[in-house]
Amino acid sequence: xxxxxxxxxxxxxxxxxxxxxxxxxxxxxxxxxxxxxxxxxxxxxxxxxxxxxxxxxxxxxxxxxxxxxxxxxxxxxxxxxxxxxxxxxxxxxxxxxxxxxxxxxxxxxxxxxxxxxxxxxxxxxxxxxxxxxxxxxxxxxxxxxxxxxxxxxxxxxxxxxxxxxxxxxxxxxxxxxxxxxxxxxxxxxxxxxxxxxxxxxxxxxxxxxxxxxxxxxxxxxxxxxxxxxxxxxxxxxxxxxxxxxxxxxxxxxxxxxxxxxxxxxxxxxxxxxxxxxxxxxxxxxxxxxxxxxxxxxxxxxxxxxxxxxxxxxxxxxxxxxxxxxxxxxxxxxxxxxxxxxxxxxx
Length: 346
Ligand SMILES: [Zn+2]
Ligand SMILES: [Zn+2]
Known about the structure:
Blueprint: H1 20-25, E1 30-32, E2 35-40, E3 47-49, E4 52-54, H2 60-70, E5 72-74, E6 78-91, E7 94-105, E8 108-122, H3 126-132, E9 138-144, H4 151-170, E10 178-183, E11 188-192, H5 195-209, E12 212-223, E13 226-237, E14 244-248, E15 251-259, E16 262-267, E17 273-277, E18 283-287, E19 292-300, E20 303-307, E21 314-318, E22 330-335, E23 342-344
Parallel strand pairs: 2-8, 9-13
Antiparallel strand pairs: 1-5, 2-3, 3-4, 6-7, 7-8, 9-11, 10-11, 12-13, 14-15, 14-18, 15-16, 16-17, 19-20, 19-22, 20-21, 22-23
The structure holds zinc ion (ZN) (2 copies).
């Protein structure tokens, strides 16, 4: 009868062929690159991978781990690889890494150590390059009809630009940046890095503030074989803005929206919604955004007694059917500089 050879040829332990321990011991189960290079922009911290720049989305600690881990290469049979790193900055552009590596190979726990070096290469990114070179594709000019845009409108437009930039950048549109926001004697100029952004921004400003858009493209040359246009997006805000209180035929109206020479208004006397022609508005009293909060001191038949917020003197205004003031409560009013009257607005 033949006796089966059932021991490991290397260590003599009972095994059908080479035992797992000897197999693991004879396998190079990981290698470690001596250096890992990473290209980053010293201005905005973007990273370049291959030819593509992207914003860093992880903190430095996580980035160090990611880079160090990328230096390690494991045998396909290794299970549950684990690595622990210790970092030491050896110069402004070098980080020394000591790694302890563990895993399971053919069911045998294995462990080892290695060292690598992270090399930080500084390079100006595509976006910073455009910004520092003064590159831009669009200018949004915010202007108004027969007036200068108000501080509120200018702040709102600038705020929209900032929010849009953040959301486009977060969605990966790196070249959609705002390179300049400047108030001029006529309004506000916003300089942007891409025409797509210019179009979006002009649309958002108009939906928030009203007005009309006209675009004026100008061919300025070529870039990467494509014709390069710079576009001026001219926004003309309406004569009156939302929240303006105007006088027309002796009544006070609050403007809700303005389009094509007509105003949608809220009648501050009877609380109805109406449409009036823009040229029927005789004068501007103020804007509800600047309304003052006044204490309601008393209510008398048809009369509301409020305290002038500036002087604390009692003044009376007419009770309005759409207003429901309470004694001891407060209400919003704007001061008509021409008549000295308080106009309740809410
Ligand atoms: Zn063996
Ligand atoms: Zn950059």
